[in-house]
């Protein structure tokens, strides 16, 4: 499995000391369907724990995507990997209690970190087993919980539905949160939804926003020129760039429809939409670009190993998602001075907190997205450069990865970050 661009750049910078039987250990339980921001976040936290003198026990349930990256970074002597294929993490499936007991029993970690890539991770019976095993349990919530149903199906065709599935989900999530010492939310929006809609105990919630290694993402004009030449992008084109998975919730189809509106408006600079990433919808999205007659303005470039070089060729970083947490690709793009255009989803408006640093539009609205793209295109060079500086400064001051890791490590061991 290929790792995303955000992973590869740190491969040679995380050397760690030799293993020690006396070294404290932290356990992670993970389950994944693909490699994305949650996995990048998890790897970053593992690296921070190793640097702070911990070993790591990593349980990969029904997934093996971390293995090649651990090898690449030289971490395998300090990260003990256990591969399992047990049920009980995803809601709606029975928990293999005996299987999980057998897996957890030999672990020496006293602390568990459970990165919840979705709010439907964490069956109550599994979390209770974890509560019995570990002295400290930390849940990391990356996404908002599902919205309370409004209207919906009618029972017997007459009586409005009660959203029983949502109530069950809320009840299960609250019981799961009761097993944790701390619940980390990656944005204020995720925290508020968990407390107000799902009834999580407020005293257990801690917001630790995602961060990026902004020093490694400085804008480089030569890299930008080389990137444009490689993909035959005119030097004077305005590049709206994406770093994303090609799956339905990422809204790449919406970006294409917005691009068609921009092209039809005949802006002063030629627009180009660059989509970096891979996923199951690529062929379908290429067909849509042809139907919209914007093929000449689109580049699907697939997986990119060095994000800094790609981002230096982008003018704007665009996220048109309908489901997100606080995407690292957005923060990386902003660190590289790309002006952001995002949908009003989860933590993204917290990064793009004002009109001085970018545009926030309603999700699913191609007209509003196109209008924001046209506004970016119309900016005079001096104003665009000034916005770039404000954008990169915001990341340096508020989304630094080292500060985020310090707080997460402190939470894991039950201390306060300095």
CATH architecture of the largest domain: 3-Layer(aba) Sandwich
Mean pLDDT: 89
CATH level 3 topology of the largest domain: Rossmann fold
Q: Can you tell me the CATH superfamily of the largest domain?
A: Glycogen Phosphorylase B
Q: What strand order characterises the main sheet? A: 3-2-1-4-5-8-9
The computed structural class is alpha/beta
Uncertain ranges: 1-19
Distance between the termini: 38 Å
Helix content: 25-40%
Bin the strand percentage: 15-25%
Q: Please describe the biggest sheet, giving its number of strands, its sense, and whether it closes into a barrel.
A: 7 strands, parallel
The coarse overall form would be globular
CATH top level of the largest domain is: Alpha Beta
Count of strand segments: 15
The value of Rg in angstroms is 22 Å
Number of domains: 2
Helical stretch count?
A: 16
What can you see in these coordinates?
- The strands form three sheets. The chain has a seven-stranded parallel β-sheet.
- The protein folds into two domains: 221 residues, 3-Layer(aba) Sandwich (Rossmann fold); 185 residues, Glycogen Phosphorylase B (Rossmann fold).
- It is globular, with a radius of gyration of 22 Å.
- With 418 residues, it is α/β, with parallel strands linked by helices.
- Helix 2 packs across helix 16, helix 4 runs parallel beside helix 5 and helix 12 packs across helix 15.
- Strand 13, helix 12 and strand 14 form a beta-alpha-beta unit.
Offer a few descriptive terms:
418 residues; alpha/beta; Rossmann fold; 2 domains; seven-stranded parallel beta sheet; six-stranded parallel beta sheet; 16 helices; 15 strands; 17% strand
């Amino acid at each position: 499995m290929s790792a995303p661009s955000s992973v590869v750049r740190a491969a040679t910078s995380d050397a760690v000391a030799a293993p020690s039987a006396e070294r404290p250990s932290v356990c992670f339980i993970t389950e994944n369907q693909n490699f994305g921001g949650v996995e990048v976040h998890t790897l970053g936290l593992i690296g921070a724990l190793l640097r702070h003198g911990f070993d790591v026990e990593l349980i990969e349930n029904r997934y093996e995507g971390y293995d090649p990256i651990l090898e690449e970074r030289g971490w395998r002597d300090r990260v003990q990997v256990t591969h399992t294929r047990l049920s009980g993490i995803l809601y709606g499936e029975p928990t293999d209690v005996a299987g999980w007991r057998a897996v957890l029993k030999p672990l020496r970690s006293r602390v568990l970190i459970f990165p919840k890539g979705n709010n439907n991770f964490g069956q109550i019976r599994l979390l209770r087993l974890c509560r019995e095993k570990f002295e400290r349990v930390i849940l990391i919530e990356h996404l908002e919980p599902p919205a309370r149903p409004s209207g919906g199906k009618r029972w017997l065709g007459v009586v409005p539905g009660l959203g029983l599935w949502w109530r069950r989900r809320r009840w299960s999530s609250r019981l799961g949160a009761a097993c944790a010492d701390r619940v980390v939310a990656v944005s204020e929006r995720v925290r508020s939804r968990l407390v107000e809609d799902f009834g999580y105990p407020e005293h257990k919630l801690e917001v630790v926003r995602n961060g990026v290694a902004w020093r490694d993402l400085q804008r480089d004009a030569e890299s930008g020129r080389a990137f444009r030449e490689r993909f035959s992008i005119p030097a004077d084109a305005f590049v709206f760039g994406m770093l994303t998975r090609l799956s339905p919730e990422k809204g790449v189809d919406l970006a294409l429809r917005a691009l068609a509106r921009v092209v039809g408006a005949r802006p002063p600079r030629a627009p180009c939409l660059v989509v970096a990433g891979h996923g199951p919808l690529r062929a379908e999205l290429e067909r849509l670009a042809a139907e919209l007659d914007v093929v000449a303005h689109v580049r699907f470039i697939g997986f990119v190993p060095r994000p800094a070089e790609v981002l230096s060729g982008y003018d704007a970083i665009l996220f048109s998602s309908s489901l997100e947490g606080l995407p690292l690709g957005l923060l990386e793009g902003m660190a590289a001075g790309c002006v952001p255009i995002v949908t009003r989803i989860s933590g993204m408006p917290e990064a793009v907190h004002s009109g001085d640093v970018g545009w926030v539009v309603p999700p699913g609205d191609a007209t509003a997205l196109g209008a924001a793209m046209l506004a970016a295109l119309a900016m005079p060079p001096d104003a665009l450069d000034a916005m770039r500086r404000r954008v990169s400064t915001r990341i340096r001051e508020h989304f630094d990865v080292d500060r985020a890791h310090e707080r997460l490590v402190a939470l894991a061991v039950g201390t306060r970050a300095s």
